[in-house]
Prior knowledge:
Layout: H1 17-46, H2 60-139, H3 161-172, E1 177-178, E2 187-188, H4 190-199, H5 209-212, E3 217-219, E4 229-232, E5 240-246, E6 249-255, E7 259-264, E8 272-275
Parallel strand pairs: 1-2
Antiparallel strand pairs: 3-8, 4-5, 4-8, 5-6, 6-7
Helix pairs in contact: 3-4
Amino acid sequence: MSHTAHIRSHRKPRRNASKIAMRAGVAGGVLGTLAVAGASGSASAAEPVTQTLELPTLTADMAVQVAQSAEVTQQAAANYQLQAERDAAAAKAAKEAKADLADAKKKAEARKKAAEAARKAAAERASRAAERTALSASASTPAAGSGASASVSTGSSTATGSAAAVISFVKAQVGKAYVSGATGPSAYDCSGLVLTAFKQVGISLPRVSQDQSTAGTQVSLSNLQPGDILYWGGAGSAYHVGVYVGDGMFVGAQNPSTGVVERPLSYDPPSGAVRVL
């Protein structure tokens, strides 16, 4: 036996050649795959990807459609503006028509009042004429059982106290206008003048002629005193009143044509008189 037979070798035992070859093949495949992937990655990194968007081509038909759409939009805007102008014009016309109607109503009402005043004045004149005729006939006929003639006083008695104040007031109103329903200070109707005159001395009279003709003590026309209230028509149904101011004169708001006047009793002889002073 050799003296080296029991000495172990320091070299590693050889591996099986087939296993080594297999491992080498696997490693080569892996490295090859990595190399291909790396090359592909490098190529991708070197060449950026560009995405191309295809825009629609503006054809002749599309251009016509766009133009037509713009024209329709412009026409719609013009129509809206025209409608707004028409609405504004209609509103203005309606406002003007309303104002014209109101003005026409006012004028019609004024004409109606003027016609009514003229009709009333004409009726009063006609009634006074009839009363005058009746009074003239009565004055020329002897009173029953007495043989005396009816007469109207034209004496020149002098007013004093409250009567003087009333007379002074009504004379100061001569020349002012006659307006139905007016009680002064710039216009009166007949009963409005009497009402306001006696108010100056603290006497409150009824507003209308019918009531004023019964407001005091009935007195004879032959025994008149300044400050007496004269009335035309029947007592309680008189259609006109005035104030006797003495000397055969009276003051009254006669009608729209004459206004407030001072006249002799012979101008329009009254039917009766009442005394409140």
